Amino acid sequence: MSETQRLDKWLWFARFLKSRSLATTLAASGRLRLNGSVIAKAHQQVKAGDVLTFPLGPHIRVIKVLNPGTRRGPAPEAQALYEDLQPPPPRPARAAPPLGGEPPQRDAGAGRPTKRERRALDALMDDEDGED
After folding, report:
1. How does residue 1 score in pLDDT terms, banded at 50, 70 and 90?
2. Cα–Cα–Cα angle for 44, 86, 65, nearest 5°?
3. For an engineered disulfide with 5, which of 68, 79, 110, 123 has Cβ 3.0 to 4.6 Å away?
4. pLDDT (mean) for 114-120
5. What does the angle CA 124 – CA 126 – CA 131 come to, to the nearest 5 degrees?
6. From CA 2, how far away is CA 111, in angstroms rounded?
């Protein structure tokens, strides 16, 4: 007999969600698939070898269950519970600065700009964009 565990509890143990109630909400939402079948119950049992597909943030996660958890431990312990079959794509590099070159710099120790300085800076930046 293989070991099984509640789906919501496993999602929480594997650190996909911050709380068990969030895991229960995701499992009951009908947006989670277990081996290709839509799941609408948080008490659905998962076992080693099951494949979970669910939305998490802007990504669709595809996860293979390797072990049922025994506790919500540190991240390395949680990552040993699953294999990520389709990891999220890497984050894109930061956007290039505007066409005018580098963004304006403030002197070190000058502090934050005041409201008046900020408005003047915004007006200056808008004028540079409108010269084309």
Report:
1. very low
2. 35
3. 68
4. 91
5. 100
6. 61
Q: CB neighbours (10 Å) of residue 20?
A: 16
Each residue of 15-31: pLDDT tens digit? 999 999 999 999 999 89
User: What predicted TM-score, i.e. pTM, was given to this entire model?
Assistant: 0.65
CA distance linking residue 83 with residue 49, whole number of Å: 10
Q: Do residues 44 and 78 lie in contact, with contact meaning Cβ atoms separated by under 8 Å?
A: no
- Is residue 64 within 8 Å of residue 82, measured between CB atoms? yes
Q: Is 26 helix (H, G, I), strand (E, B) or coil?
A: helix
Strand runs (DSSP E) across the chain, as ranges?
A: 4-6, 32-34, 37-39, 45-47, 51-56, 59-65, 82-84
Residues recorded for the chain: 132
Its sign, for the CA torsion 82, 85, 91, 93, is positive
What is the structure's pLDDT at 22? Answer: 93
User: How far is CA 20 from each of CA 9, 27, 31, 45, 95, rounded to the nearest angstrom?
Assistant: 6, 10, 17, 15, 36
- Please give the average per-residue pLDDT across 60-81, as a whole number: 92
